[in-house]
Amino acid sequence: MSAPPIADIQHWSTRDIAAGQRLAFYSDVISSALDPMVVARAVTDPFDGEITATRLGPLILVHGVSTAHDCVRGAEHVALSSSRQFHLIVNRRSGWNLRHRDWVHVGCGDAVLLDSRLGHYLNFAQAFDNVHLVLPEAWLGQWLPDPAAFVGKPMPNDAAWARALTSFIAQLVPENLQHGALPTQLIVDHVGALLALCANQLSGEMMQPVLRQRQLRDLVQDAIVQRCTEQTLGAVDVALAVGISVRTLHRTLAACGQTFGGSLMAARVALATRMLESPLMARLTISEIGRRAGFADPSHFVRVFRRHSGTTPARLRRGRI
């Protein structure tokens, strides 16, 4: 069964707009297609942007490509909205920063849900390629019992159902659907079902986030300690050993106030300290101990050791003799 072509695709571009009028023009376009807001700052000059939009059953599908800029939706813009709706956004080209409830970083290919009742600040520090779905409150309520619980929380595309959701949404540009073979309602229901599955997964994850993050952090930390003597050890190697993505590794360490580089240096310094304090290693030179602890450069070893321990390897060794 083939579906009728998607009709009424609207297109706007700053290409034929004078450079000094482009921000105002683009602000009017996104306010009309999405919700009232304003482009507060363009990072590049001249500013360029293109928007295509169409209806997808009860949803509105918007595809935006633009140079770097910031968008603001303040209280005065929220007051202009007559009804509540939600916005599901996937940036296919770059990561970006969002202040909605809190400041968060949304990675390239991740999804995030916004609530039109709340203001926001969107910081696109790089050129972007956004697929943006406008979801009516009543429609979303059929799929998510409490949509507000997921507002402003990035859905990382390396999580199982979030990966399926973001991969599907990333293909939903109006041009791709214009002569599609699937009925519109089937596409809309697929979006809702994937959102529900993703939300269910995130709900389970949010029940014990601290415990889960600490358990995963401990696995990462153990792998770092076990392999810190490898001079070329990188985050990719540890992530593969633990069975997670590099992004999950960095996110897990950050949630526990750590970085990969800092954890690796701390593990190497701890190992070097044990060797410096061991009578069995007394005949080894400082440089050799640094090398065995994973430091390729002796001077780098001394600098890192001093930063972590407050003393040099030589002084520590003399103090133990």
Automatic annotation (TrEMBL):
Ranges of residues in domain HTH araC/xylS-type: 214-319
Transcription is among the record's keywords: yes
Keywords noted in UniProt: DNA-binding, Transcription, Transcription regulation
Protein's name in the database: AraC family transcriptional regulator
Taxon lineage: Bacteria, Pseudomonadati, Pseudomonadota, Gammaproteobacteria, Lysobacterales
Gene3D superfamilies in the cross-refs: Homeodomain-like (1.10.10.60)
Source organism of the structure: Rhodanobacter spathiphylli B39
GO cellular component: cytosol
SUPFAM superfamilies assigned: Homeodomain-like
Stored PROSITE patterns: HTH_ARAC_FAMILY_1 (PS00041), HTH_ARAC_FAMILY_2 (PS01124)
GO-annotated molecular function: DNA-binding transcription factor activity; transcription cis-regulatory region binding
Keyword GTP-binding applies: no
Residues passing through the membrane, by range: none
